[in-house]
Amino acid sequence: MPGARESLLDAAFAALTRRPWSTVRMVDVAAAAGVSRQTLYNEFGSKDGLARALVRREADGYLAGVERALAVHGDARERLTATAEWTVTAAHDNALVRALLTGCWSEHLPTPVLRPAPASAAVPAQRRADGPLPSPGDFVALVRDRAVSVLAGPVAKPDTAELARSCELVVRIALSCVAAPPGEGGLADLVRGALHRPAA
User: Fold this and answer.
1) Which residue in 6, 14, 46, 199 has the most C-beta neighbors within 10 A?
2) CB atoms within 10 A of CB 173
3) Is 34 left (phi over 0), alpha (psi -120 to 50) or beta?
4) Taking the model in full, what pTM does it have?
5) Taking the CB of residue 95, how many other CB atoms lie within 10 A of it?
C-alpha cells in the first residue's frame, strides 16, 4: 500500500513540525493520513518503526537532492557549489536532515538507533528502515563519493584523490555553514575560495 505509506509518513512529518515526537500519537497520524490505525500498524509495526521509516525517508530525500544538485549544468565548481547550497538549505528547512548531518538530535525529534538492526521485521515494508542509518561521517563520505563519481565522468581518471579532497572540503564547508551560517558573501564565496582551481 505505497500510497498509504507515503500519506502516513507525510502526516508523521507534519505532526513533528508542530510538536515533539514524544507527544505525537499514532491515532492522530492515522487520522491525518485518512487511514485506520490498523493500517498504520500494518505498515510500520510500531511508533518506533514509523520513526525509523520517517528518518530513512528524509535521509533518502536529502541524498536525492544531492543527485539533483550534481546534475546542474556547469563546471565542477558550480556543481559543488549547488551541492553545498542544497545541503545548507535542506538542513535549514528540515530538522531531521539537520540532525542526520550533524548528529545533534533534540528531545523533540525521534532518535533512531544508528547501529545495524536485524532485518527481521515482521512487516516486510519496514525491513529496509530497520537497517543502519548513515552517521554524519557516512553522509560526508556518501556525498563526496557521489560527487567524485559524477565529476570524474564515465571514464574515471586514474588519480581522483585531489578531486575527492575538493569534494569532501565542500561538504565540510557546507556542514560548517549549517552550524554557523556564513556572513557577507555567503556560502558560494566560501566554496569558490576553497576551490581556488577547478575540482575536475
Assistant:
1) 199
2) 20
3) left
4) 0.85
5) 18
Q: Are 81 and 192 in contact (CB under 8 A)?
A: yes
Nearest partner of 87 among 183, 9, 175, 161, judged by Cα: 175
Q: What is the pLDDT of residues 168-180, one digit of tens each?
A: 999 999 999 998 8
What is the Cα 62 distance to its own chain's centre?
3
Contact predicate 148/160, CB 8 Å: yes
Q: Give tens-digit pLDDT for 141-187.
A: 999 999 999 998 766 566 788 889 999 999 999 999 998 888 777 88
Q: Which amino acid is at 77?
A: R
Name the region of 153 (left: φ>0; alpha: ψ -120 to 50; beta: rest). left
* DSSP-assigned letter for residue 107: T
Closest CA to 79 of 137, 160, 159, 147: 147
Contact 195, 166 (CB under 8 A): yes
Residues 6+ apart with CB under 8 A from 166: 76, 80, 194, 195, 199
Which distant-in-sequence residues (6+ apart) come within 8 Å of 148 by Cβ? 160, 163, 164, 167
Residue 159, number of CB atoms within 10 A of its CB: 8
Distances (CA, A) of 50 to 47, 135, 167, 175, 196: 5, 19, 34, 27, 45
